[in-house]
Amino acid sequence: MIRLSNLEEVERLYATRGALNYGEGVTQLEHAVQCAALARAQGAAPSLVAAALLHDIGHLFGMEEDATEHDDRHEIAGARALKDLFDESVRGPIALHVAAKRYLCFTQAGYFQALSPASQASLVLQGGPFDNAEATAFERLPYCREAVSLRRFDDMGKREEFSGRSFADFAPLLRSLLLGSAEL
Rounded to an integer, what distance in angstroms lies between the CA atom of residue 85 and that of residue 5? Predict the structure, then answer.
């Protein structure tokens, strides 16, 4: 299990592996900054903006080489890796953003059809749409609403044109949310 111990490690991870493409026509880094910019533009809480930026960090750990054949559980790996840096308001939506996709496929008519081809394919590996019992259980989880919002940013943050944003644009926000940042 990977654990990140400081923001510099997060920044370095995006600097070294953020150019990876995961089948969406956009790099991991560009997807991250698009999602965070969308969250910020919609007035999301700072913790949700940070979650939008970091939600796919688990893809950067190099575990998804054959992710087209199995679910790499990137959402869980990412949330766990950030445990020493951010509280549950950031990590909770990250850990639940795949479940939110499954939830939306069950509860929202036409949602599955609107997903990108890569998201449709990964949904199969991730367990497919929820059933009624799974959807009800999801609705009871802390951060389920934030995870649904994050999922929508995730869906919209796949534009092939460059946003003009950088990871550094969000570094002050991330620093303000670090565990113990009030003591700095």
Answer: 7
Residue type, 34: Q
What are 151's two structure tokens? 């999922």
Tell me the pTM: 0.92
Residue 173 has what DSSP assignment?
H
Report the length, in residues, of the chain.
184
Domains of the chain: 9-179 (1.10.3210.10)
End-to-end CA distance of the chain: 28
Question: Phi, psi (5° rounding) for residue 59?
Answer: -70, -20
Q: Please, which contacts does 114-120 make with residues 24 or more away whose CB atoms are closer than 8 Å?
A: 114/155, 115/155, 116/24, 116/155, 116/158, 117/23, 118/22, 118/23, 118/24, 119/155
Q: In the chain, which residues have pLDDT < 50?
A: 64, 66-67, 183-184
CB 3 within 8 A of CB 81: yes
